[in-house]
Amino acid sequence: MWSVQYYIFLASFVTFALGSHWGYSADFYNKLCPSLVRSEQLECGVYPTHHVETEYEKATFGMGCFWGAECLFGATLGVLNTRVGYSGGTTPNPKYRSLGDHTEVVELHYDPKVVKFEDLLELFWNNHEYGLTTKIKKQYASLILYHTDKQREIAEKSLKQEQERRNPEVITTLIVPASEFYPAEDYHQKYRLQSHKDLAESLGMTPELLQTSYVAAKLNGYLVGVGGVEQFQKEADNFGLTPSQKEYVRHHVEENEGGGLFC
After folding, report:
1. What is the pLDDT of residues 90-141, one digit of tens each?
2. Closest CA to 146 of 178, 168, 191
3. What residues act catalytically?
4. Exposure string over 6-34, b if 16+ CB within 10 A, otherwise e
5. 200 Cβ contact partners less than 8 Å away, ≥ 6 residues apart
6. What are the Selenoprotein methionine sulfoxide reductase A helical domain coordinates in residue numbering (predicted)?
7. What are phi and psi of 182, to 5 degrees?
């Protein structure tokens, strides 16, 4: 059995050989090596930051396909975690193929000392059109589910301002009290992160962490370019990433920045 020291040496050598001196190979950005990550974790003593202990508030939005919405909010400064699911209806135990009268939504926890509910609403208004001014099926409705009276007041004021800005279009967005949230199936959670299988594996993703992990929420957005390279570089050290994980993500942020949200 190889010793830990051997793997540390190997990780250091490979990191140097593939690193900034020589430039990372194209294959590196297509397939992250889990054994290299494990070696770096041992050497550097860094592990994924799945949880951040701080006071938080909850927000829930329906804005069309929930994959894109989860990416948008995940990479937003001050957002602590995200998960997608179904809410706003009365059908018991909805599933993707049997939603009943529910809507696809993203639920998030955020630190109000860093990002305000008003800021989240600005992202909401500016990042979806599908269902915002057109009546469509309930699954993709434009929806704000408030958790407190203060959120309701802020949302109603924000809707009025947005309506004035968009006249003569009529906004169809509904503002309703938050009701029971039903988490979507595992394959919907952090959908973009899960498409990077080696990275997700190296982060130790489990079904529970797909819904609760801080770093998973962040990378799910950054991997499609949300937030941009500059923001990623500033906060990447908070994520508990190894050098190869960090470089892998940075490359994809740079490659996809400005590409817009998609499903």
Report:
1. 999 999 999 999 999 999 999 999 999 999 999 999 999 877 877 788 999 9
2. 178
3. 65
4. ebeeebeebbeebeeeeebeeebeeebbe
5. 190, 193, 194
6. 204-253
7. -110, 110
